[in-house]
Fold:
Amino acid sequence: MHCRLRFSISSMTHTNEETTSSSGVGTFESIAINLLDSRNRYRGTIGKSQHTHSDIMEANPMTREFDTVIAGTGPAGLMTAEQCAGRGLDTLILEKRKDVTSSLMGELVTDKALRLLRVKPNSEYIGNKFTQIVGESLDTGANIVVDRTLLGNSYLLDEDRCQELMRDRALAHGAEFRYNARVKSVVQKDNQVIGVKYNHDEEARAGLTVGADGSFSRVSKTAGFTHPKWLLSYGYRFKLENCKNVDPDVAYFYVGEDVGLGYLWLYPRSETEVNLGIGRVPSSKDKWEELKPMRDVLKKYMKTHPETKNAKIASVNGGVVPCAGLIPRFTDAGVSLCGNAAGQVSSIVGGGVTTCFHAGILLAKHAKRMAEHDDYSEKSVRKYEKEYRGTKLANNIVNTGKGMWAVSKFSMHNDPISAAEIVLDELDARTLNELIQGTAGINTYLTLVSEFLPMVMNIGLGYLRAIAISGL
Ligand SMILES: Cc1cc2nc3c(=O)[nH]c(=O)nc-3n(C[C@H](O)[C@H](O)[C@H](O)COP(=O)(O)OP(=O)(O)OC[C@H]3O[C@@H](n4cnc5c(N)ncnc54)[C@H](O)[C@@H]3O)c2cc1C
Structure:
């Protein structure tokens, strides 16, 4: 982008003397040509001009190589990358793994994710489409059926293809991917983040550093962001083959004693292939330790269901999702978090794909503004956070986050499974859907109070106790 060129010219004007005097080798011209030439040539010729990367960085610590450097290639990092590059920003993506694929990107999404990703429902990027979702108790068989008139369409993404698509779009716009690149910390100067250190002593400098490096983000930690109400949901997933007589149109969510505070899911990919997963939140150490390991719960499910009894486990993935809502602050001078790192996940169901896409698109729009004005000050980066917090999705995340925090506290002193059983037995699908999506209005709560007073009292007392403990 021309902005970077402008910056490079002015920074080289300043670095002429410093460079030659600090390193004592090379000439201004050799470095200037390298810096002002195309980005690839610049990187490729540092060695030839006998200047190391750190010579140049030392000469002018504010030298920027990129408009944006992004840590992580989950859905948040990939969407931010394709959108930043698509807007003409010089974009570098650092990923600690060796490729963008073969990871758990998240699978069940609605139409909104497809719109944000700009793919069609019947395209190769969609693994399956569901017409019905069933919530069921593994212990009693009580169930609730939510059809598409309530939920809208639900799709199973083909994760690898979606990841490749976003990567290829970013590459086509000139973004650079570096794999096996583990970000260690941000680099700061004058209270502003100016890039990252990765692997042993490598550095990448940029106007905006984006931490899309997941729930245990190094960017977040080293830039000093905090999350006092961090509540994590742990997930584990098998991809199964050789299943039998699976109805590919129906996805299942299960609760039960073995599952704990969370749910087990079965998302068919076809009549013979399913994704079987489990996600749970620890409410207290003791309760967590009482639970069967997640892998064993999945294996028990496989054994006790004829469809999966003889299935073969084709792959295993796991991950951790924040589920207590947005962190108090996720932007600062020169840096922004995106996705799990910022708590941008719809908390009750642990849905992060749509929210990551949405956040990445918005962040890229602001990254472009920052580059155009060459303004990465705290105030400028904060504009992204401000706009983000004003969106409906952010509002849902905050609402469901509070709900999840309360449920987790509730379950320290009560039995969440029996509460879930009551919900499955008595609540209608529409109300349940509203509660899960965080869109329930006053009428819903009034209906709940009048029609389900005993259950509300039961959950409500636990909720109040939770509030008392947590200071919510
Ligand atoms: C079992 C499970 C099932 C799920 N199912 C769904 C679902 O059905 N629907 C849905 O919407 N959501 C689902 N989610 C949630 C969704 O997957 C996440 O919210 C989403 O992946 C978050 O994306 P992200 O890009 O923020 O982080 P991540 O997907 O965690 O990606 C982070 C990336 O950063 C890289 N990285 C980490 N540290 C570093 C470092 N130091 N240096 C460089 N790179 C680094 C990682 O390798 C990774 O590629 C599920 C999650 C789990 C665990």
Observations:
- Confidence is low (pLDDT under 50) at residues 2-57, 451-472.
- The chain has four domains: 2-63, 68-101+161-228+325-395, 123-154+230-321, 397-470.
- Residues 71-77, 94-97, 103-109, 182-183, 212-214, 218, 235, 237, 277, 279, 319, 321, 339-341, 345, 350-354, 356 surround flavin-adenine dinucleotide (CB under 6 Å).
